[in-house]
Task: inverse folding
């Protein structure tokens, strides 16, 4: 298990308060709150449709919440009511700023097909964060080497396996020097034998003290690497706590069923 | 007959520069207008004029448009007195205007299709980095949209090449105009058709080839990796 | 002022060109329609040739579609018109040396449209036929259907269903091509507009009217094809 960060009293790097999200008539998130401190690894578990991906996507505003507050660092995301009663961001600049402090890793990698791996990694640092090219390239090379993709710099995503693409995608997110990394089911689209290499990268990131929010189906990984585990059911937090608390004494029936179903799925 | 056909080909080739220049200008203008039209569609206000424009210029036959510009505009004395008149009375510029307007409507649909074919995830990944909208368009959307649109755009350019034949009706002597003249004076339509047809087909072939080459160059992601090892047989496990 | 003048000129009253333009619009529709139907016949035959498996037919069919899709329609019109006139002239001279030959421009026009449209329709029919799951043909065979019955009840309906959107586009092409037939003298919309323009020296009024009428025909056709598409879509719509 990752060593917990020392000061639980320090200001959280991320605070989500009573987040609600509806798609038309369907209410996916019904009031979710969570807090993340620096260096914490939080795993978010739940069945399909429980709202876990939506929760993650609300944090960097890929979806706009219907209600609730999100505070990243010391900045609260300003929302306002738009046409049709739907919420939208009030300050586009703020959104851009906050997004560049959050890194996101997607289930389907989403590397840019027309750019090489190296170009993928330096794209945001150069064109969003406006860092000098030489610096971005050097840092990219170092990061890619760390994840074992040094020889794939000039390859295109289509030439890489799923595991390699996801490692490249993680590197791409890291290159922006984010405060928090968001992972949206990073291994769900991978063949089983490729899952390990991606989890290894995530493990080492956690060990280095990166703050991570991981939506995942990898229960074992969640147990081993997280500081806290959250189980969502039907848009609400059903279970929350340290891995020992959550997996040690299972009080929630639906969580028990979820674990049982997942265990069967894995074998 | 062969001598006649060779002579005909020689005469027809004289029209190739005009055909090509009309096509080139129309493609260039058409592309710029098409891009503007596609961008207009993202604004709730401008989308309606854009859609109307595309509908109009795709529904009105090109020949009618040519006549409108070349003959129709001469009705207005205010235009005849303006500084535009030296251009508007020339068949060449009228042809370019009409061809550009026509192709811009079709091209905009093709480019729009290119944008729609971009995998959503790659757009999301870019948005998630906080990329501002214009940068997103320039660095991610345009390159990917163009790659998706290339095959359809090739077809459109070939259609445009064929469409230039219509300007022969307003006295421009491109390939079809010359062909008409030869047919009318020699009454050997069959041979002239074969010659002119062969020239057009050759140009179509060349354009297709060029596009294939461009597609190949722009799509390293669809080719084998730079240092891909020679394919090996899997040893049976 | 301008509007009033325009309406008077295009109206159906005395000295108005309304009736003439309306008649011309009908000619446009008829020419395009006959051309399109001819194209359906040619297209079916050529598609059949392409799917026949016989190399000679396939090559000939390929040649036909490549040629007629790659060459300007105007050239095809000139070929048929001048070629037809030459043929007729020879024939007439054999039979009767007096009088002169008037080539039937409507026929030439419809044929020209048919030839070009056929090349495009061929591809639609071929693609649509190949899109029909093979199993359905086999099932019809197994059920003891004769070839003709199979074609009529299984193949043809589905080819039409798959092909309707593309056929809508090809119809629009035929409509636009009908305007080209004006160059050989057929009095369709564009020709009529040119006649009116020459007579009144108000070319803009006439050509904008022609454009407008083409738009109307186009809109109505569009609506018809969309309706057809919608009605046949229910065969493939999954229950939501």
Result:
């Amino acid at each position: 298990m990752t060593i917990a960060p020392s000061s639980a009293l320090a200001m959280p790097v991320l605070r989500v308060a009573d987040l609600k999200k509806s798609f038309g008539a369907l209410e996916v998130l019904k009031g979710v709150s969570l807090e993340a401190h620096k260096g914490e690894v939080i795993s978010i578990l739940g069945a399909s449709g429980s709202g876990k991906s939506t929760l993650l996507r609300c944090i960097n505003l890929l979806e706009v919440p219907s209600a609730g507050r999100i505070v990243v660092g010391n900045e609260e995301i300003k929302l306002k009511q738009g046409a049709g009663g739907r919420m939208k961001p009030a300050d586009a600049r703020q959104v851009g700023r906050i997004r560049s402090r959050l890194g996101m890793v997607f289930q389907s990698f989403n590397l840019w097909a027309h750019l090489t791996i190296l170009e993928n990694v330096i794209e945001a640092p150069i064109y969003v964060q406006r860092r000098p090219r030489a610096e971005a390239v050097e840092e990219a090379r170092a990061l890619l080497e760390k994840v074992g993709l040094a020889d794939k710099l000039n390859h295109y995503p289509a030439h890489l396996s799923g595991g390699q693409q996801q490692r490249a995608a993680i590197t791409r997110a890291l290159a922006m020097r984010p405060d928090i990394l968001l992972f949206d089911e990073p291994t769900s689209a991978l063949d089983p034998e490729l899952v390990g290499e991606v989890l290894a990268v995530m493990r080492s990131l956690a060990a280095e003290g990166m703050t991570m929010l991981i939506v995942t189906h990898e229960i074992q990984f969640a147990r081993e690497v997280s500081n806290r585990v959250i189980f969502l059911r039907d848009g609400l937090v059903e279970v929350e706590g340290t891995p020992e608390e959550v997996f040690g004494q299972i009080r929630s029936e639906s969580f028990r069923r979820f674990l049982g179903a997942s265990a069967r799925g894995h074998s | 007959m062969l001598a006649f056909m060779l002579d005909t080909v020689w005469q027809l080739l004289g029209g190739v520069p005009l055909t090509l220049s009309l096509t080139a200008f129309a493609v260039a203008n058409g592309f710029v207008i098409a891009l503007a039209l596609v961008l207009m569609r993202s604004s709730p206000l401008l989308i309606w004029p854009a859609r109307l424009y595309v509908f109009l210029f795709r529904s009105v036959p090109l020949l009618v448009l040519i006549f409108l510009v070349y003959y129709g505009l001469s009705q207005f004395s205010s235009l005849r007195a303006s500084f535009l008149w030296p251009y508007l009375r020339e068949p060449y510029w009228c042809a370019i205007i009409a061809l550009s307007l026509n192709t811009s409507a079709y091209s905009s649909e093709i480019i729009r299709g290119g944008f729609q074919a971009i995998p959503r995830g790659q757009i999301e990944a870019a948005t998630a980095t906080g990329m501002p909208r214009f940068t997103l368009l320039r660095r991610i959307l345009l390159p990917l949209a163009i790659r998706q649109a290339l095959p359809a755009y090739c077809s459109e350019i070939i259609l445009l090449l064929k469409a230039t034949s219509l300007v022969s009706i307003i006295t421009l002597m491109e390939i079809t105009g010359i062909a008409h003249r030869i047919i009318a004076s020699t009454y050997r339509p069959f041979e002239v058709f074969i010659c002119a047809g062969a020239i057009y087909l050759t140009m179509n072939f060349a354009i297709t080839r060029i596009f294939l080459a461009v597609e190949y160059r722009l799509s390293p992601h669809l080719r084998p990796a730079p240092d891909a090892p020679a394919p090996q047989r899997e040893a049976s496990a | 002022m301008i509007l009033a003048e325009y309406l008077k000129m295009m109206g159906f009253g005395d000295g108005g060109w309304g009736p003439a333009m309306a008649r011309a619009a009908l000619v446009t529709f008829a020419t395009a329609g006959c051309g399109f139907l001819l194209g359906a016949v040619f297209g079916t035959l050529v598609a059949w040739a392409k799917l026949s498996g016989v190399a000679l037919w396939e090559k000939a069919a390929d040649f036909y579609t490549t040629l007629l899709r790659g060459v300007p329609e105007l050239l095809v019109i000139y070929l048929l018109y001048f070629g037809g006139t030459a043929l007729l002239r020879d024939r007439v001279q054999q039979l009767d040396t007096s009088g002169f030959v008037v080539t039937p421009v409507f026929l030439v026009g419809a044929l020209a449209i048919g030839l070009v449209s056929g090349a495009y329709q061929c591809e639609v029919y071929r693609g649509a036929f190949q899109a029909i799951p093979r199993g359905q043909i086999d099932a019809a065979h197994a059920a003891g259907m004769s070839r003709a019955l199979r074609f009529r009840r299984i193949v043809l309906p589905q080819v039409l269903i798959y092909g309707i959107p593309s056929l809508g586009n090809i119809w629009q092409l035929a409509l636009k091509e009908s305007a080209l037939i004006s160059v050989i003298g057929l009095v369709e919309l564009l020709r009529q507009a040119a006649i009116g323009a020459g007579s009144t020296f108000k070319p803009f009024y006439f050509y904008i009217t022609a454009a407008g009428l083409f738009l109307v025909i186009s809109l109505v056709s569009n609506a018809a094809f969309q309706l057809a598409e919608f009605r046949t879509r229910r065969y493939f719509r999954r229950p939501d």
